[in-house]
Amino acid sequence: MRHPVFLTLCVSSAFALSACQKANEAEVERAVQDVIASDENSMNAIMMTVADPNEAVAYFKRESAEQPNRIDFKRGLARSLIRARRYTEATSVWSDVISHPEVTNEDRVNYADALIRSGNWDRAEAVLDTIPPTHETYNRYRLEAMVADANKEWKRADSFYETAVGLTTRPAAVMNNWGYSKLTRRDFSGAERLFTEAITYDRDLFTAKNNLVLSRGAQRNYQMPILEVSQIERAQLYHTLALAAIKNGDVAIGKGLLEEAVDTHPQHFEEASRALAALQANVTN
């Protein structure tokens, strides 16, 4: 009479063991997929940041071809094309991204950025107009400011630049852009202030240093500002200041600054030497 009970226990144990095995297999499969996803995300991050841009393009092209429904691979390809300065191709890929069901507002911002880089300002403005005002990010307002600048809508540009500055902890680049906007409007003192601020946030931003010298030269202030620069950079700044002086008609001062640029440069400064020779020849004639 004990055999049926024993058989029932065996069958129950077998089912339990089978269920446990299936559960363990499912857990193992989930763990494997998690590892694969983690490795994939790490590889994507590496390719979008530190890898050679063209290698990244090749990687994301391959992955996108194998899994065309994956929006993350399309994003990676578009960003890698931007890094490789292949803006027209990037614009095309971003266009595919924004037609994807999983598109985000940040994708639309990146599409507008690619359009601006490829010179399609009108289309970029139209794309930015589709983004709701609740999407308040540094990149969005930086691009809005640039578009307003292109349209010479100065009040809007100033408002967008100010908002963008408040949305980032690294505002040097956008302050430099804002300063250049002021420079084109001939607000030289306003430009000088913004370039100076930009440099306080990024002491290595040579573009802002060069623009600062331009804004001072436009005000006939030919004194070199106190800046942390290399010998080569200082020579280049003297050259910029010299050209500003010559443009203002202060030729003698410009000649002296060109001589300073040639003397300061640790190697032969061909561009400054050529400008100085041309200036001397013109004076002689």
UniProtKB/TrEMBL annotation:
Entry keyword annotation includes Signal: yes
Q: What are the protein's UniProt keywords? A: Signal
Q: Which PROSITE patterns match?
A: PROKAR_LIPOPROTEIN
Which portions of this protein are annotated as coiled-coil regions? Answer: none
List the signal peptide residues. 1-16
Instruction: Check the record and name the InterPro entries matching this protein.
Output: TPR-like_helical_dom_sf
Answer yes or no on keyword Signal: yes
Q: What is this protein called?
A: Flp pilus assembly protein TadD
